[in-house]
Structures
1.
Amino acid sequence: MNASLIFQIANPAATIAWLVLVLFPGWKYVRVFTVTIMSSLVFAGVYAFALGTSMAAGGSGNFSSLEGVSMLFQNPYALLAGWVHYLAFDLFVGSWISFHAQKLGISRWIILPSQFLTFMFGPIGLFTFLLIRALMRRESLATDPFA
């Protein structure tokens, strides 16, 4: 399957998963859908396929310099693997934010900006949630994020 076609399928799939997460946070299967099915099965499967296809094609590059990483991503399947990696982890983090906020009694309306920022800018969204959580619970940002 062509890397561009997979990319064109993966992006709307991620958007649908995010919409389910944001619009139906109380649905009893939302965690199964976003974490188990989409992040762990679908995106991990696409990632493994793209990474394997990229590695089979050979090529040059490494992780020891920015130029080396740039060379790795000249292969469209390596680039796809990198993108799907972002999709999977951002969805996982967005799901964690949602479930953690529910556990702590933080309104879904308050965390919506954090989820949007996670969808668009990954770590910035996570930071905003941790900041919201710290302010609402009057605790340090250095508090264990899994507590």
Note: The longest helix spans residues 76-104.
2.
Amino acid sequence: MTRIVCVGAHPDDVEIGMGATVAKFAAEGHEVTLIDLTDGEPTPQGTHETRMLEAARAARSLGAMRRTLDLPNRYLFDTVEARTTLAEVLRETRPDVVFAPYPQDAHPDHIAAASIVDAARFYAKFTKTAMRGEPHYPTRIYRYMAVHLRLVREPSFVVDVSDHLDAKLIALRCYESQFESNTANAGIIDMMKATAEMWGRTIGTSAGEPFFAAEPVGLRTFDALL
């Protein structure tokens, strides 16, 4: 079993960027924890209570655990306080792998979240510190894309999520306040389905999700290659 942490600036970020992969990991028996840095509020149709209920339902539908931190939505910055808040969670959850937002985005919170994750991963290994928990350094960090820009980037790898795309769409529909009640976002779920199908075609499957690595991705054998 691999311990996996997926960090987003807001509830629904991870589901948008890699919800099907989360469902795949959970189905394979891995321990997956979703961490929202903020509650994502205020939004036009949401409340804190509504978002927390929606986020909990979405995580359950994917087979994942979830934690929502109390950093400020819309005013998320890469500060020492934000770094140590997340680092303490990493020291507690002790993931082998961390997934973080793609660092180039139009949304300032997403950009800040990407930086916070990088720094928190490093802070989590400190030995002489007032932070709670024992030192821990996640071995791998990868990026998922859930951006507000029309970006097409060549990924480091694409995960075959053909058997789990429906789980992603179910999780996204849990966020009724964000997608069904907010007419401005009404087409996002259909777009996510089409995007996954497009990435699937690039690897010869019916659905895929792309990921990005700053370091080389190694293979022990060719068995996992499509």
Note: The two ends are 23 Å apart (CA to CA).
3.
Amino acid sequence: MFICLVQHAKATSEEADPTRPLCEKGRADITKMASYASGLNIGINEIFHSPKLRAKQTAQVLADYLKPAKGLTETGGLKPNDDPAVWAERLKMMADNIMLVGHLPQLGKLASLLLCGDADKNLVAFEMAGIVCLKRDENMAWALRWMITPEMVI
């Protein structure tokens, strides 16, 4: 099983728009990333995203390119301060390759919890619109498979 963790793309400031939609740069970055990821053949079955607009818009662009068989699902447990243990537990019951689109610090804590059992270790340096791919082996152990950021993609 693979899980791709995606921090939402850059959004407008809260002062400019309290709903914080993606800004022009954010939309361009996630479009570039989604296009690149579509050529990787990662086989995402479903994309889950937080209810915040910037995550929903990021997930929609990714879905447009990756065409997950089960589509998009808005879900809990992915807001900035949500407990990463919620998704760590959910993942134990899943077998499909999925993508989670959310926020920091939750995604960083989830990655650290999966990789070393300690959500506070801060093992992965997430970037907006970046994609971090973790793989779970047959012993239910997680490992970092790859990571790409908008700066890496031409």
Note: Residues 115 and 142 are 5 Å apart (CA to CA).
